[in-house]
Write a structure and sequence with these properties.
Layout (H helix, E strand, L loop, with lengths): L16 H8 L14 H17 L18 H16 L1 H44 L6 H4 L3 H5 L1 H10 L9 H10 L1 H8 L3 H15 L27 H16 L9 H13 L1 H4 L1 H10 L1 H13 L11 H18 L13 H18 L1 H22 L3 H26 L8
Helix pairs in contact: 2-3, 2-17, 2-18, 3-11, 4-8, 4-9, 4-18, 8-11, 9-10, 10-11, 12-16, 14-15, 17-19, 18-19
Protein name: OpgC domain-containing protein
Keywords: Membrane, Transmembrane, Transmembrane helix
InterPro entries: UCP028704_OpgC (IPR014550)
Length: 424
Amino acid sequence: MATIVPQPDTQVTALPSAAANQAAAPVQAPAAVRTRDPRLDFYRGIAMFIILSAHIPGNRWTGWIPARFGFSDATEIFVFCSGMASAIAFGGSYARRGWIMGSARVGFRVWQVFWAHIGLFFFIAMMMAALDTYGSFDKSYANSLNLGHFFNDPMPQLVGLFTLTYVPNYFDILPMYLVVLGLMPLLMAMEKIGLWAVAATSIGIWLAANPYVIGLGPDGLALSAEPWSDRKWFFNPFGWQLLFFTGFAFMKGWLPKPPVSKLLIGVALAFVVLSAPFGAWKVFLWVQAWTPELAETIRPVWSLTAEWRNKSDFGLLRFAHFLSLAYLGWVIAGDGGKRLIASGHSIGARIWAVVLNLITKVGQQSLAVFVVSMALARVIGFVLDQSGRAITTTAIANLTGYALIILVAFAAAWFKSQPWRAKR
């Protein structure tokens, strides 16, 4: 760093002390520009596109989402990446401001997500009610989401909605995320004891939701989804928190990054490929068409592994499958995501740079995109009901949906930047 020193032939006049100190201070070199690691936002963005397609009723494209080829699906990507993002967003608050202020920030996020959930429910319920009230269709759109109880007897359901004791299936991801976020202060308190306490707490909560692992029966810790039945939340937060805090632990540095080795790559790839017929009916039917004898050997395993691949409680096979996929994705992206970043000035590199920017922008604004996509999926499903589900029509519907959530992501980023504030 260069220090400002008067030249011998330069006349120096007296300066006020503050100005003199400033003049004598070393000139700071420009801060190095940090390139944002694209891996987190890229994979979370990919998950958001898949989630949109997965929620469009009667969508042909759902035949090709990850859920059709293994135990885990886009939900795992979303939850794992949310854990990583939370380590960035909240982990620093805990480190800088302590447990109380860090937990206060988490509480504020819980407050935001809660009202996003409430707003999403009422907006979609309004849309379904409008279609049933003012349209003459051959189906009830309100009943297609199992909202009949809400409209027929709204008072207890309103109480249930706000206390999270009434959680219709389509509206269960954000409540799960709420409870998992609410567990963060507990895990951060355990960190003061030791990382072993963090791991023991998270694994213990997961075992409470999955007691079959230690031979305590199929019914574990869960939350009621509706007062008129025994149905539980489809996404049990006590099971799914294990995946969330695994992502949190990797980003926080509690877990070291895995080494890149041919052995681990081979094991992960073998598990993903060989487990496919045991976790996806689509692949199982392919095996059955190819060799019926092998399919008959595989078929009994489905009933034996039902609990271990259960989606609601986040079964252990789903965890293993996702970690295998995540490891492969991490290796493919390269250190710091360098293989994702476009290099060179070719047309292909420029196109990829644009695509990467769009996907990562969607990943960066995942909450806004998710909320809009859940409502958008119902609108697209309605349009497909009226226009038919031909291959071309379905493709146009999905691509239009993708374009709209990209616009939502850029709009959300623009509003967050608060451009109306005077720049200094």
